[in-house]
Design goal:
Number of strands: 19
Oligomer: single chain
CATH class of the largest domain: Alpha Beta
Largest sheet: 8 strands, mixed
Structural class: alpha+beta
Helix content: 25-40%
Number of helices: 8
Length: 380
């Protein structure tokens, strides 16, 4: 006898755990299926800390969603008793005409976000771990900070389970088929399940379940470094804001010390390596470390001490860098959250709410027009 649910969620990482919770909190019978552990370090929703920031240099259209995410993260903390969101302040810096600085400033002005504009010297004086070059400018926003992703996933899963959701780890989905009654049948390595609705939040594996996403959600290898500072207190959360920094050779991002004895940072899109998530080289290489260390030595010299940790993860990039939050045009019982392009985790609490709306109602009151599949033509 095949089990029947209201909704099945495929992928219980950052987005899927939140979606499972929001669906279950509405009284629905929900099954979450995860191919690895809950949580795990094989995809995109791990790495000890993840940035959250109100200014969105990518597009001011993201601001209402991130404001909702802040509220929902605080709600989840209250419900579960876990500390998930740590406020450090945030810096968006670069040359005055860079997309990071100019876009962040535009976002603050368009969406009435409290902020300061600082010169490089003012940043370096206020936050001595920084050594931004003369001529760079920064938007400082006091509400920026970081989330702890593994704990956030655990919190969402525990909250979903408390609402009656079933979550099964180490059960990879092989495929799914649409049923004549408008539902879906999902086949895993262990069993088969049916549901009225399906939500795919499978990260880098989404394109394997939905081949039409092959050119829309493309996995990319990413590497992070944690280096031991020579003046550790300058890199503590109370002294060191999270940052995004535009330089001549790309965008970088970083965090204060937390849970690892090192200053954490990475380069967006790292070496530009498109990968198969099942065959990616997960071991950091010497060239990964050299690239990252060169950046720290230039802009955060007191943070460029001995290597404490290197780790890989994945971005899943869309052609325009914006998310996919939509139902499939030819199978409206299937909702997709994919292509978060390296800047999605901060939104996970709100994305889960949006995907629950789309799965249940086929629409949402949130501002998500930027994230429709129709911008890619016929895919999928």
């Amino acid at each position: 006898m095949t089990d029947r649910y209201d909704v099945i969620v495929v992928g219980v990482g950052g987005m899927g755990s939140a979606t499972t919770y929001h669906l279950a909190s509405r009284g629905l019978d929900v099954l979450g299926l995860e191919r690895y552990d809950v949580p795990h370090d094989m995809g995109s929703s791990h790495g000890v800390t993840r940035i959250i920031r109100k200014p969105q240099y990518e597009d001011p259209a993201y601001v209402p969603l991130v404001r909702r995410a802040y509220d929902l993260w605080r709600d989840l903390e209250e419900r579960t008793g876990r500390d998930l969101l740590h406020v450090t302040g945030g810096i968006d810096a670069g040359p005055p005409d860079s997309d990071v600085f100019a876009g962040s400033l535009r976002s603050c002005e368009a969406r009435d976000i409290d902020h300061e504009v600082l010169s490089a010297a003012e940043v370096n004086d206020r936050f001595p771990g920084y050594d931004l070059p003369e001529g760079h400018r920064a938007v400082y926003q006091p509400d920026g900070g970081f989330l702890v992703p593994e704990q956030a996933i655990i919190a969402h899963v525990e909250a979903a389970q408390a609402e009656g959701a079933a979550v099964r780890a180490r059960e990879p989905v092989a495929d799914f088929t649409a049923l004549s009654d408008g539902g879906v049948r999902v086949t895993t390595a262990k069993d088969a399940y049916e549901a009225d609705r399906l939500v795919v939040t499978a990260g880098a594996w989404a394109r394997k379940l939905l081949p039409g996403l092959a050119d829309v959600a493309v996995p990319e290898r990413q590497v992070l470094a944690w280096l031991r500072p020579s003046a550790p207190e300058r890199f503590d959360p109370e002294n060191f804001p999270v940052f995004v920094h535009a330089t001549a050779d790309g965008h970088y991002y970083g965090f204060p010390r937390y849970d690892v004895p090192g200053f954490k940072f990475g380069k967006f899109n790292h070496l530009g390596e498109t990968v198969d998530p099942d065959g990616m080289d997960r071991e950091p290489r010497p060239e990964d470390e050299r690239l990252l260390r060169a950046y720290a030595e230039r802009y955060f010299p007191e943070g460029a001490g001995p290597t404490m940790r290197l780790a890989t993860c994945m971005f899943t990039n869309t052609p325009d860098g914006h998310f996919v939050l939509d139902t499939l045009p030819d199978r409206p019982q299937v909702t997709v959250g994919a292509g978060f392009s390296g800047h999605g985790f901060k939104f996970a609490s709100a994305v889960g709410e949006v995907l629950a709306d789309l799965a249940v109602d086929g629409e949402t009151d949130r501002e998500v027009g930027l994230f429709g599949l129709d911008r890619f033509g016929d895919a999928p």
